[in-house]
Amino acid sequence: MTDTQAAKARLTAQLADLEGRLQRIEADLDEPHDPDSSERAVQMEDDDSLEGQAQIIAREIASTSRALDRIAAGDYGFCVQCGEAISEGRLEARPEAALCISCAKKV
């Protein structure tokens, strides 16, 4: 398996995991609140936290999807800003990375 194939497999698994997590959060958010006002207040606070988590996961899904698009286009492993190769270590740690370390530090 080439590095790109391994990255694609890893990103595909990561995307499936993220989508599953987002679906579970959305299901929790769809649950009706308890009619008891004190319990409802706690549930609403929990919903705020879940909504924040959902936003983070949605951004991670978008980033992972863009990385898979770069693989399909043959651009994976190159910085989208400067065009230089992204180090293997960075891609190992963050397979969805779109920026090299130098460009990421500038952002």
What report would you give on this structure?
With 107 residues, the protein is mainly alpha-helical. The chain has a domain at 3-76. It has four helices and no strands. It has helices spanning 3-30, 37-73, 88-93, 101-106. α1 runs antiparallel to α2 (37-73). It is elongated, with a radius of gyration of 18 Å. It starts with a helix and ends with a helix. The mean pLDDT is 92.
Task: Note the topology.
Layout: H1 3-30, H2 37-73, H3 88-93, H4 101-106
Helix pairs in contact: 1-2
Task: Describe the structure concisely.
With 107 residues, this protein is an all-alpha fold.
Can you tag this structure with a few keywords?
107 residues, mainly alpha, elongated
What is the share of helical residues?
A: over 70%
Residue share in β-strands: under 5%
What's the rounded overall pLDDT mean? 92
Unreliable runs: none
The secondary structure category is mainly alpha
> How many DSSP-defined strands?
0
N→C terminal distance:
33 Å
Task: Give the ordered list of helices and strands.
Answer: HHHH
- The tally of helices reads 4
Radius of gyration: 18 Å
This entry's quaternary arrangement is single chain
Query: What is the overall silhouette?
Result: elongated
Main sheet summary: none
